[in-house]
Design the sequence.
């Protein structure tokens, strides 16, 4: 039997690694997609490559896109990454680490990849519970993207198949995600989440991404193997 | 009074040039966006730069994206571009010149650019009458993209403004487009439409794009200044 194929967006962080492990557990043959988008460091892409290999992806592509051409985000410019924000601050408004239309752009490339590889499903590790307040992490965005995708593609028009956008983490807490990753055998020491690591690649411990990750491990009652 | 800002997708062809002229006529200050996506020739991008200058765009950005990484289209690989297809053939199925998810990707970048420049409108010169049968040129796709875009962005979430995706050519025939371009003073000798020009940059005259362009000029009863 030919396995169903999925495109998995893979940043190399905790969430996308867990999402890929869920896709694998669901029986998909996985085609992973990462982006070199002018983020401040290459560690994310190295982590993504390690995770793709660890979780037996059929293919891993890295697409270079120049989001710096537009500016507008602390992750793709020389703005400071904010530190030590409380949960209330993260829940209140959209931070400067937001990259304009990033998930829309990433999912659009995943849609192209899905068409070329005849994949029926696209997995994205967005999360609307313990998150930074980005608009493109919400369930209503994912649903609207799926609807659009089915009007945009050959398969949709010819009635051959439907594209499903799957966001299995969207209603999970960070500790749920840590527990799911461990249950699925993900080696979390391979993942990298920090927005602003030091020159040796160690996580800063204070950006939104580090704080959310620590909260997840703390609440799950396990230590973070990436900090050893 | 501060003029309204629009992002205009600009390929350098007849349709996108006319679309930009309509945006200008409607009073928008225009931020043009073109893509270097591994198309077979650079003439499109040179034409886009000439058209942006001619129609007084406030800015013109060219974003490099590697659609060749996926393959799957005659426009981004070494497949042959089909020639001399009839209108019936063009209306029947999706041709090999279709680039997977291309308009979805292009509009996603336009959405990022709109967020950064505070533009309220995105213009795209798609056409669902005299066209090649691409799924992402249809009104229902444009509407679904607009709906998704308003869930994807800061402005949408914060209720500050709505993004409108405008496709003013979508129900026009090619001859309507030629007539509109002439009425708006567009110098059509600057535009380039061919998928497969010769080494000197002359249009092949036989690809879908050349055939549709010729039909438009013929039906409008004017000669094509780009063929002189």
Sequence:
């Amino acid at each position: 039997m030919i396995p169903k194929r999925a495109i998995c967006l893979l940043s190399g962080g905790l969430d996308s690694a867990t999402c890929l492990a869920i896709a694998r557990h669901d029986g998909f043959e996985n085609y992973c997609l990462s982006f070199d988008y002018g983020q401040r460091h290459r560690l994310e892409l190295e982590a993504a490559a390690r995770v793709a290999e660890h979780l037996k992806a059929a293919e891993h592509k890295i697409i270079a896109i120049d989001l710096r051409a537009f500016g507008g985000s602390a992750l793709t410019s020389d703005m400071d990454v904010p530190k030590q924000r409380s949960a209330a601050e993260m829940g209140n408004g959209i931070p400067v680490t937001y990259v304009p239309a990033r998930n829309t752009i990433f999912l659009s490339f995943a849609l192209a990849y899905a068409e070329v590889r005849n994949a029926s499903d696209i997995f994205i590790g967005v999360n609307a519970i313990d998150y930074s307040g980005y608009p493109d992490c919400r369930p209503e965005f994912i649903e609207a993207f799926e609807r659009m995708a089915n009007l945009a593609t050959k398969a949709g028009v010819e009635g051959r198949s439907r594209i499903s956008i799957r966001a299995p983490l969207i209603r999970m807490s960070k500790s749920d995600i840590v527990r799911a990753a461990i249950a699925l055998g993900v080696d979390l020491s391979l993942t990298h989440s920090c927005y602003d690591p030091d020159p040796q690649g160690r996580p800063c411990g204070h950006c939104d991404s580090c704080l959310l990750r620590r909260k997840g491990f703390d609440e799950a009652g396990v230590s973070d193997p990436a900090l050893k």
In short: Residues 102-117 of chain A form the longest helix (16 residues). The interface with chain B takes residues 61, 63-67, 69-72, 93-94, 98-105, 107-109, 111-113, 115-116, 135-136, 138, 140-141, 144-145, 147-149, 151-154, 156-158 of chain A (CB under 8 Å). Chain A has eight helices and five strands.
